[in-house]
Amino acid sequence: MKNTGLILAIVFQLTQLLLVVLAAPLLTGWVNQCKAWLQNRSGAGVLQPYRALNKLFHKDAVIADNASWLFRITPYIVFGCMWLAAAIIPIIAVDLPFSRAADVIALVGVFALARMFIALAAMDVGTSFGSMGARREMLVSFLAEPALLMVLFTASLISQSTQLTHIVETFAHHQFILYPSLAFANIAFVMVLLAENARIPVDNPSTHLELTMIHEAMILEYSARHLALIEWASSLKLFAYIGIGIALFLPQGIIEAGNWAGLPVAIALLFGKLVLLGAGLALLEAMTAKVRIFRVPEFLGTAFLLAVLGLLIHFLLGT
Amino acid sequence: MNLMSALPLDVVSGVILFWLALGLLGLALQRSPELICRFLFPAGAAISLLLAATGLWALGDGADIAVLPLGLPDLPLHLRLDALSAYFLILLGGASFGISLYAAGYFKTMQGQSLALLCLEYHLFLASMALVLIADDAYLFMVAWETMALSSYFLVVTDHAIPDIRRAGFLYLLIAHVGAMAILLNFGVMQAGHGISAYTFDAMRGVHLSALWSSIAFLLALFGFGAKAGMLPMHVWLPEAHPAAPSPVSALMSGVMLKMAIYGILRVTFDLLGTQLWWWGVLLLGLGLLTALFGVMFAAVQGDMKRLLAYSSIENIGLMLTGIGLTMIFHVYGKNTLAALSLTATLYHSINHAFFKSLLFIGTGSILHATGVRNMGQLGGLIRYMPWVSVLMLVGVLAISGLPPLNGFVSEWLLLQAFLLSPGLPNSYVNMLVPVAAGGVALAAALSAYVMVKFYGVIFLGQRRDTELHDAHDAGLWERAGMVWLALGCVVLGLMPVFVVGQIDAVSLSLLGVRLGNATADWMFLAPVDTHRASYGPLYFLLAVSGVMLLTVLLVRRLYHGRTRRGPAWDCGFPAQTARMQDTAEGFGQPIRRIFEPFFKIENEVPTPFDSSPHYQGVSEDKLWYLLYLPLKSITEKLSGWAGLLQHGRIHLYLSYTFVTLIVLLIFV
Predict the structure, then answer these.
(1) How confident is the model at residue A103 (pLDDT cuts 50, 70, 90)?
(2) Which of A10, A250, B375, B638 has the least CB density, counted as fewest CB within 10 Å?
C-alpha cells in the first residue's frame, strides 16, 4: 500500500517535470502576447517561443575562439537547475517525493547556482558586454536575494516550516485566515520577481541597448542550441517564480500527490492562475518605465524593507 | 583511567612531538633542501591525517585527562582531550594535511637556510595549534597560544627583505599581543584569586563568579580571541598579514588559526564560565553581523587576490561569531535543542571554511608561482593555461559562495534554520531582532557570491590582460595533490551532512547537554529538529541535477545535432576587442563602492580626456584605520613621549627618583 503511494507520487513528480518544461515557453509567449496587445500591436502569438526554440536548436552553434569548457557546459547546468527548481515547487500537488530534497532556502540556492554559472560564462569570452552584464546581474541578485529570503521567512514563520509542501498545506488546506504580514511580503515578492527575471523596470528583455541590458548582455555570445537552452531556462525561471508566488499567495486548489481524480481540475486551475498572473505581469510591465541601473538598489532596497516590515508585523501581531 | 581511554590523548601528544622533531630535523638538513621538501613536509602531512583520525576517534568518547610532570612548581601541565578539542583537532588535521602536501611542492624553489627555518616554524606552528587545543590550564594555554603567535609571525615575515612585509608582520604581532594580554587577564579574572593551582581549567569550571565579574571575563575573552579571529574592529592585521605570508602559511592562518580563536571563545564561554547572560549573545550576534558585512563589502572592492580572500575570511569569521551569539541566546533562554542547532551550524561552518579557504589560498599560491602577479587586474584567462588549478578553484569558489550541493551551503542553511526557529524567546526585543539579523546573514551570503564571481571571473576567465601570461604553467604534482584533497573535502562535507552533523552532536552533547540528531532515519536527508520543518538532501539533489543535465544533453543531440563552429567573439558587432575592454577588479567592484560609499574612504584618480597615457587609480580604504587606529597611535605616542620626559640617561637623576619615591612611601606608611 505504501509502495503504491510512493509510485503514484513519483508518477506525479514526473508529470510535473514534463508539464513545467513543456508549459514554461507558453507562459513566456502569453506574457509577450499580452504586452503586444497592451502596446497596440497584434503580437506573434503565444506559440512564438516554441518556434524560436525550434529554430535555434536546428542551427549550428558558433562559439568564440577562446571560449573554455565552462562556457559550453553552462547552458546545460542552467537549464538543469531551472528545470529542477520548477519541478520541485508544488503548483499542482503537494508532497512530491523530490520536494524533500530541497526546501525554499535550497531553492534559492539552486537559483543562485544557475546565476553564478551564467555570470561566470558571461565573463569567459572576455568581451566588454559580457563582464558588464555579469557585474550588473550579480549586483541585482545580491540585492534581490536577501529580499526574497525575507519573504520566504515570513511565510515559513507562519507555517512553521521552510518546506513549500507544508507552507502550501498551511495556507491552502486550513481555515482561511488573512495574514497582514503576507500582504507586505506579497508586494516585496513581486518586486523581486521583476528584478530576478530581467523584467521592466530593472531590465528589459526585448532590447539590446548597452545602457539598459543586463541579462541579454550576459548571453550575447551564445547561439543556437546553447542560446535555446538559456532562453528556455529563463522561461522556466519565470515559471518557477510565478509558481512560488502561487504556492505562497494563491495556494487554493493544489491537491495531494496521488489524487488522480483531482488532477484535471488542479491543472485547469493552475492554467487559470497562470493566465491571470501572466496578464498581470504584462500590465505591470506596460505601466512602468525602465529605471537607471543605480536606481535599482533603491527599488530592491524598498522590496527588502517591505519584506522586513512584513516580518516585524508578523511578530507584532503574533500571528 | 584505563589504558584504552587514554590512548587518543597519547596519540595527539605523540603527533605534537613528531611535528617538533620534524621541525628540528629540517634545521639539521638545511644543506639539502631537496630532502626537506621531498620528505619532511609529506611526513608532516601524513601525521596531520593521523591527528584528524584520532580526533574522529576521540569525538565520541568522554574527556581524557593527563597531568605531565613538567611546568611551574605548583602548576604542572594539564592536558585534556574532550569533544570540543577533538572536533577542532579534526579540523586542524584535515586542513593541514592538504596544506602540507601542497607546501611540499610550493617551497621547492626556496634556498636551503631559509627553507630550514621555515620548516621549523611551520611545524612549530602546527604543533602549537594542536597544543592550544589540548591545553587544560591557563599556563600551558598561554604558552601554546604565544608560540602559535610567534611562529606564525616568523612565517609571515618569511620574505623579510621587503619593508611592507615587515610592516605587516609587526602589525600582526602587535595585535596578537594586545589580544594575548586580554586573554591572560581573562584567565586572571576567572581564577578569582584562588592561588596558582587555580589556574587549571578544571578549577575555573568550579568557580562561580558574580554577573559583573563574569561579564568582565567574557568581554576580555571576546576582545582577546576576537583580536586573533579578526573581529571588528581588530581586523586590520588580517588583510595585511595574509597577503604578506607565503600562500600555504596564509592558508594555515586563515583556514586553521582563526578557528583557534573560535575554539577559545567557545571554550571560555560555554565550558569555563558557568553562567551566561543574554546580552552577551546579542553583543556577539551584532558584532558578528557587522564583521561579516564589513568583511564582504571590503572583499568586493579589493584588487589584490590575497587581500580579497583575507577580507572574505573576516566575513566568514563574522558568520561564525553570529552563530555563537545565537547559540548563546538560545542557551540562556533554555532552548537547548535550538542552541545545538546553531552551534552545529557554527562548527560546521568552521570546518567548511577551513577547507575552502585553505583551498583558495593555496590556489592563489599556484597562480603566484605561475605568473608572479598578485594583482588580479593583470591576470585573466588562466582557465586556458592552468586547467587543474582552475577546476579545483571553481569548486572552492562555489563552496564559499554557499551554493548547493557543496559544503558552504549546508552550514548557511543550518544557520538560517536556526534563525527561523527563534520565535518563542521570552524577550520580545530579542525575538524581533533575531529574524531581522537573518536578513543580514542573507545579505552577507549573497554578497559573497558577488565577490567570488569577481575573484574567479577576473583571474581565470576572459582574455589574458598581460602578454607574458602564456608562460603560465599548471601546478605541480604535490601542489595538485594538496588542492585535490581540500576540494574533495568541500564536496564530501557538502554531500554527507548527516554524517558530519552526527559527529558534531558529540560536541553539542558535551557543551549544551543535548544532541541535535536527525529527525529522519534516512542518511540521505538532513532534517534537523523535525521532518516537517525542513529537510535537505544534497545527494538526491546532485543526482537529480546531473540526471536532468544528462537527459538534456542526450535529447538535444538525439533530436537535433551537436554541430559547433568556432569564430571570433561577436560582442554585439563591436569590431575592435582588446583585453583592456574587460572589467578589471576595480571595475567589477565599482557598484559596491558606489552603493556602500559611506563605508569606504575613497580616493579616485581619473585621467582627463587629453592625457596621452591615461591612468586610472581608485583606492578604497578602511575608515576605521583613520578613525580608530591612527588616533590611538598618536595618543600612545604622546603618552610615551611624556614618559620619555622622565628618562635622561643620567645616573644621578635616577638616584633622585629613587630617593623621592622612598620619601613619599615613608610619608604614606
Answers:
(1) confident
(2) B638
